[in-house]
Design a protein that fits this description.
The complex is a heterodimer of chains A (about 120) and B (about 110). By secondary structure, chain A is mainly beta. Chain A has strands spanning about 5, 10, 20-25, 35-40, 45-50, 60, 70-75, 80-85, 90-100, 110, 115-120. Chain B has strands at about 10, 15-25, 35, 45, 60-65, 70-75, 85-90, 95-100, 100-105. Classes of the chains: A mainly beta (about 120), B mainly beta (about 110).
Chain lengths: ~120, ~110
């Protein structure tokens, strides 16, 4: 059973870069799935950030694209998120999740990591 | 801004049926998936595809779709179903997007 675990600093300074890693256990990151990042500001809804395939192909939310980089490390069975030039608006719980479903018109997120709170503050 | 619109909140009496809707033009082309989120917890998948439930999800949860609207129905709502529910699909450009979320209160 695949499990995901986020890790990284819980506090980032404004204008700095947020860096998180999602470790995949119980399965291979090289399987036929996309791997995604989702965030949730305190008291607000879910926002899709972007995703990566084991080949390195990526898709990003257009609203964040200029600041986001998602990468994969197959040797460590993990993928990572970098978000640059952060502000207080980037304070959120960040989740990683596996994207299932081969067909473009039929995908879903399962499972999810437990999430990690990242606060942007000086 | 989200291209998938949900009612902010709905309430249901214990044991009764509640339908949560998700509206967006892209739903004419893409299936929606549905997630339950309880306070302080990660979202959990409850419905995907035409009407599929992951292992462990009670059969009181069901999904349907018509035109630009996807629906999640809870038949015989239980106290433990009180949570926020989000739909997910793609927008008109093919980017993944979440709905605005619906808070379900079980009375």
């Amino acid at each position: 059973q695949v499990q995901l675990q986020e890790s990284g600093p819980g506090l980032v300074k404004p204008s700095g870069t947020l860096s998180l890693t999602c470790a995949v256990s119980g399965g291979s990151i090289s399987s036929s799935n996309w791997w995604s990042w989702v965030r949730q500001p305190p008291g607000k809804g879910l926002e899709w950030i972007g995703e990566i395939y084991h080949s390195g192909s990526t898709n990003y939310n257009p609203s964040l694209k200029s600041r986001v980089t998602i990468s994969v490390d197959k040797s460590k069975n993990q993928f990572s998120l970098k978000l640059s030039s952060v502000t207080a608006a980037d304070t959120a719980v960040y989740y990683c999740a596996r994207v299932k479903g081969i067909q473009l018109w039929n995908n879903w997120f399962d499972p999810w990591g437990q999430g990690t709170l990242v606060t942007v503050s000086s | 801004s989200s291209e998938l619109t949900q009612d902010p909140a709905v309430s249901v009496a214990l044991g009764q049926t509640v339908r949560i809707t998700c509206q967006g033009d892209s739903l004419r082309s893409y299936y929606a998936s549905w997630y339950q989120q309880k306070p302080g917890q990660a979202p959990v998948l409850v419905i995907y595809g035409k009407n599929n439930r992951p292992s462990g999800i009670p059969d009181r949860f069901s999904g349907s779709s018509s035109g630009n609207t996807a629906s999640l129905t809870i038949t015989g709502a239980q106290a433990e179903d009180e949570a926020d529910y989000y739909c997910n699909s793609r927008d008109s450009s093919g980017n993944r997007v979440f709905g605005t979320g619906t808070k379900v209160t079980v009375l």
